[in-house]
Amino acid sequence: MTLPDFADLGGQQKQRVVDAVFDKVSRRYDVGNELISFGLHRVWRSHLIESVGFRPEHDVLDIACGTGDVTFAAAPRVRSVIGTDNNPHMLRLAEQKRPAGMRNVSFVEADAASLPFPEAKFDRVTICYATRGLPALDRVMAECFRVLKPGGELWILDFARPPWPAVDVAWRGTLYTWGAVVGTILHGDPRTYMYIPASLAHYQGQRVLDVTLRAVGFAPTEVFETTLALMAYNRAVKPG
Ligand SMILES: C[S@@+](CC[C@H](N)C(=O)[O-])C[C@H]1O[C@@H](n2cnc3c(N)ncnc32)[C@H](O)[C@@H]1O
Q: pLDDT tens-digit profile of 18-46?
């Protein structure tokens, strides 16, 4: 699998590259997360879960849910969670990981840019580690706005663009080098995880995401950066 520069790709081509990556890594996705992040993804995810303000009466949508880590972590705190992803391999693995007796979780195959849910259905929407790779980001954000109830909140966690140029370059360089090591170990191909720095390089970043979110109707958003601004959380509220 060769990974062309994301900047040269149109939306559909970019989606094909992303889909090919997840077709390939799905089987070892969870162990890949452990190795790429030295286990820290658990800390960053659990901070997200603690921050979102889930309540027992909430209905939640976890977009691009992958193998369901956020979906399953939210479930005990809320009434219902739907995990959606456009990749059937990822959803199958999520279904296999469902904890016994967890009945308030369902999975739906869907493109984040065209969600098969009615307006104002959800109290909270989460997107974890997917935003920077989504080709039609403005359409995805508009869909998040549409399916949220007034007063509902969108929470995004993703790799960040540190505001200091030297750290920004070093961060992507580290992801490139360490991703090559992990790709070789897990898949015999150093290019496997190149999509992480490649997608990050063309991601507008957590601080600029606010512009896209406000353009689709969200109130001015909050950004929380952590771990030297290598990770970031965006919180956007639908007015109402
Ligand atoms: C890095 S994984 C993140 C999975 C999960 N949220 C997590 O935190 O582990 C990115 C996910 O985005 C999904 N994805 C990519 N493009 C998508 C799209 N257009 N619509 C829905 N999901 C998409 C991929 O299939 C993959 O499961």
A: 999 999 999 999 999 999 999 999 999 99
